[in-house]
Amino acid sequence: MGQNDAFSSHIEGLRMLLSTPDMSENLLVILDTIPSSIVIVDADGKFVYVNKHAIELYGIDYAGFEMDAHIANVKPIRLDGRSLPFDEIPAIRSIASGQIVRNAEIIIQNINGIEYPVNVSSAPLYDRLGGINGAVIIFEDFSDRKEAEEKLSSQARLLDEVYDAIIATDMGFAITFWNRAAQRMYGWTAEEALGKNVDALFQTE
Predict the structure, then answer these.
(1) What is the dihedral sign for C-alpha 88, 99, 44, 60?
(2) In the beta sheet, which residues pair with residue 37?
(3) Euclidean distance between CA atoms 127 and 63, whole angstroms
(4) What are phi and psi of 97, to 5 degrees?
(5) pLDDT at 202
(6) What's the pLDDT at 190?
(7) Tell me, what's the pLDDT at 60?
(8) How far apart are CA 130 and CA 35, in angstroms?
(9) What is the pLDDT of residue 59?
(10) Low-confidence residues of the chain, pLDDT below 70?
(11) What are the tens digits of pLDDT across the range 89-115?
(12) CB 3.0–4.6 Å: which of 8, 44, 49, 142 could bond 40 by disulfide?
């Protein structure tokens, strides 16, 4: 099972557990031991539960906070820096229209202003009559992955500027990197070469 599939399965299981009328203190203890940040909000967007991992990431316990105050503090934005409209915030989507949101990637700030890229999933919670009475939100900090991607991107930019032709392939000999010098030497652009089998490409010369 991939990370995204496991994450979606995780929130589905929590949604069902939290929707049961006999949710106990034991369940809240379990939520505190899960290695993910988990928060629960009521139908008005008020935070009613924040687990330990979420408190560590936020730098504050938001239990009792209203959604507006929370948003003002965490300042959610898209990964590209654009603002995230209120009605596109995962928790709001789940409360307002019952949507199950999977793997939305946004940036939030902790109480000290430090930004974290997080992968967010949310799902509505229901009362006994089937009405939405809140939402559960799970999020994961993926700073390490983002830093690795940025490092690879920086390295690729440097390789693109060198004078020698540099070509990289995967285990199946499909081209995964083609710098500008390779384009000058062989005539194909990166768009034309990427994904092609290196042997097949040069046989067409």
Answers:
(1) negative
(2) 139
(3) 21
(4) -135, 10
(5) 78
(6) 82
(7) 93
(8) 30
(9) 93
(10) 1-26, 144-163, 204-205
(11) 999 999 999 999 998 999 999 999 999
(12) 49
| 21: phi then psi, degrees, rounded to nearest 5 | -70, -15
Phi and psi angles of residue 122, each rounded to the nearest 5 degrees, phi first = -145, 155
Is the pTM value of this prediction over 0.85?
no
* Largest separation between any pair of C-alpha atoms in the chain: 70
pLDDT at 192: 85
Structure-block tokens of residue 137: 């939100």
